């Protein structure tokens, strides 16, 4: 995952993780199984963007990480196996 200064993010999958689009869909985005993008709807005003810039996108990273974890948990439940 790459979080950009403007608040958007690029999510990339791998051979073991082909659900980038599912992660992005949870945080206002979309794409393909191994390449997706999003811009979480967590920025209300310039103070939110200032916080984003000063913390190197920590809030955005937390929201996307939670989406990764939810997708991985759903995949684990559906497939009965662990997702990397």
Question: Could you describe the 3D structure shown?
Answer:
- This protein is an alpha+beta fold and 84 residues long.
- It has one domain.
- Helices cover 45% and strands 17% of the residues.
- The protein has a four-stranded antiparallel beta sheet with strand order 1-2-4-3, with helices on one face.
- Helix 1 crosses helix 3.
- The longest helix has 22 residues.
- The protein is elongated.
- The relative contact order is 0.20.
- The model has no long low-confidence stretch (mean pLDDT 91).
SSE succession: EEHEEHH
Major beta sheet summary: 4 strands, antiparallel
**DSSP helix count?**
3
The largest beta-sheet arranges its strands as 1-2-4-3
Backbone shape: elongated
Radius of gyration: 13 Å
The oligomeric state of the chains shown is single chain
Helix content: 40-55%
């Amino acid at each position: 995952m790459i979080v950009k200064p403007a608040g958007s993010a690029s999510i990339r999958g791998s051979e073991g993780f082909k659900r980038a689009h599912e992660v992005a869909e949870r945080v206002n985005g979309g794409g393909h199984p191994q390449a997706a993008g999003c811009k979480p709807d967590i920025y209300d005003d310039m103070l939110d963007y200032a916080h984003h810039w000063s913390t190197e996108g920590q809030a955005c990273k937390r929201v996307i990480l939670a989406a990764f974890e939810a997708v991985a948990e759903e995949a684990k439940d559906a497939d009965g196996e662990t997702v990397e």
